[in-house]
Amino acid sequence: MRRLRLLVAAALWVLACAWVSTALAQQAEAPLLRTFQAGDVQRYRVELRIRASADGQRARKVGRQTFAEQFSESSSGSLSWRATRRVLNIQPDGSAEIEETLDEFAISETDGQLKEDLEAALREWSQGQKHTVRYREATNGQMFGLAVESGPLLDQDPPVLTLWLRRALRPTTALPARAPRVGDKWSEGRRVQLPPWNNLIGSEEFAWLEAPDPAASAARLISLHVVQQISSPTPARAMEGPHWLGRFHGESVSTLVHAGAPLYGGYGGLYSAARSGTRETTHVGERIPTLADLPVFRARTAAEVRIQVLE
Question: What is the pLDDT of residue 7?
Answer without folding.
Answer: 47
